[in-house]
Amino acid sequence: MNTKFYRVPLSAVSAFIVILLVFAPGCGSVFSDFSDKKSPLETEIESVKKKANFDVTNVKVMRNPSEWRGRTISLSGSVVLQPILGEINDVFELRGTNDGFTINFIVHLDHPLPNQTNIGESIRTVSPGKEVRVFGILRGVEAYIGESGYRRELPVMDCLLIYDRNDFYLNRPLWISKDFERRASRKTQ
After folding, report:
1. I need a surface site. Which of 30, 57, 58, 145 has the fewest CB within 10 A?
2. Consecutive H or E run containing 136
3. What are the beta bridge partners of residue 53?
4. What is the CATH number of the domain that holds 177?
């Protein structure tokens, strides 16, 4: 066994250390992605996801609206933009199922959903028919008259967060309530 050792000149090692010290601080943004420190908004989003009740249906809410009022809930379904008398913008109907039970909620927004305004624009949109997961606070049950003229009572929620339904780890919200963002930023002040 003939092993050879190569001697590295001390000047080469010194030069490497100097280069590392000069350029490493500039890599801070690269390494910051791996830090565990979260922004106040990220912390609030995690809190909402943890306290949300995922076991909600129309039947449960309609049976006892006062028990559900003010609770944070999460639902999955399709976005249905349906004109509802008295409401013009920033509202949609969420339709789907949860454990075989109907999900049919009115979702109120505090600003418009993201949509593509230019061809070639790279933006994650929320459009009619899109499958989403919504987090929000239940207001209660309210009567609505749909476009067809039928009166219906539906559970109503104020939306906090919207995710693509295929975002299983809930990492990238498509939409965040402006009011929710303001409250999170106030907690740091």
Report:
1. 30
2. strand 131-145
3. 73
4. 2.40.50.140
